[in-house]
Amino acid sequence: MVAADKDTSRFRDAWKAAQLYYMQDLTMEAIGDELNVSRSSVSRLLDLARSRGIVEIKVISPTEAPQRIEREIKRRWGVSTSLVPVPERTSHIDRLDRVAVSAARMLGDFLDSNMTMGIAWGSTISAVSRHLVKKPLSKLDVVQLNGAGNDHTTGVTYSSEILSRFGEAFGAQVTHFPVPAFFDDPDTKAALWRERSTARIVELQKRLDIALFGLGSIYAEVPSQVYAGGYLSDADVLALSAEGVVGDVATVFYRADGGWNDIAINLRSSGPGLDVIREAPRRLCVVSGESRLDSLRGALAADLITDLIIDYPTARVLVK
After folding, report:
1. CB-side exposure of 128: number of CA atoms within 13 Å?
2. Per-domain residue ranges for the chain?
3. If you ran DSSP here, which 8-state letter would residue 296 be given?
4. What's the pLDDT tens digit per position in 126-154?
5. Which of 51, 179, 289, 308 has the fewest CB atoms nearer than 10 Å to its CB?
């Protein structure tokens, strides 16, 4: 191996070690096991990362491969991307947790006082909420984007726990949305949306500075809550498949081409229309695992994302 190749490989290892140590809280022993090096080698890699400016306030990739992927995603879809390094052999649950930890650490960079953030509950955002870093802000409003009730639970415990973690981490005022995830009849939804108490929350959802969401997918290895939590009947799932649905954001479904307006179940969904999501200046999507690639491609086609946090192996397949 020539000297230049050795330097590139060493810088890449230094970047990985810094990500694992500073962003994911792994011990030096665990990092050594993952990189197949000794603890002292990990210490030297971290020293190299600090001395070469890889570690500042956040971890910066010094290698061409991650930067090339980030540039390619920006070129194709206009989306700013943060890559989270995970080994190919990592289990789906561990991969989600690593991406969630990194997303939780980065979220503070997106938030400031006098902002409104919309939260779409789900498996991914629930994982993010468990790792939030405290950053008290003034006059930050956090609003729930879609209801969580179904025919056997109100969903309040699940959704309120997620939103409460964001409220506690950022000193935010939290607004819950106590309605079903899906209505039985679109006319019932229309009537409730005319009620002043509901209309107030719907209007707040239309004034977002940032929307935070994961992507629902029927085929994900870590099941999306909307599919695993009894929110959809077998007939609903069959209908979604027949209509070519590849994913959802805040329980609003879309196809591979980003189309969503003529999908029948969306008339019964409590989630905001995807046009409402698109009105938010920043739309932060957190994705983990290649099984969500079809859902991600559909969301990109729908122009739902401005900022993406994704694991490196999945991003690599995306740009291929």
Report:
1. 27
2. 3-51, 64-319
3. H
4. 999 999 999 999 999 999 999 987 766 65
5. 51
Residues 6+ apart with CB under 8 A from 259: 302
pLDDT of 286 > 60? The answer is yes
- Alpha-carbon 304 to chain mean position: 12
* CATH among 2.40.170, 1.10.575, 1.20.81, 1.10.10 for 3-51: 1.10.10
CA geometry: angle at 81 spanning 16 and 14, to 5°? 15
One DSSP character per residue, 103-168 reads HHHHHGGG--SS-EEEE--SHHHHHHHTTPPP---SS-EEEE-S--BBTTB--HHHHHHHHHHHHH
Tokens found for residue 52: 């070469």
Domain 64-319 belongs to what architecture? 3-Layer(aba) Sandwich (3.40)
- Is residue 273 within 8 Å of 46, Cβ to Cβ? no
In whole angstroms, give the CA distance from residue 311 to residue 79. 15
Per residue in 224-269, pLDDT tens? 777 777 788 889 889 999 999 999 999 999 999 999 999 999 999 9
Question: Judging by DSSP bridges, how do beta strands 245-249 and 252-255 pair with one another?
Answer: antiparallel
Length of the chain: 320
Q: Is the pTM of this model over 0.85?
A: no
The pLDDT tens digits of the residues spanning 238-249 come to: 999 999 999 999
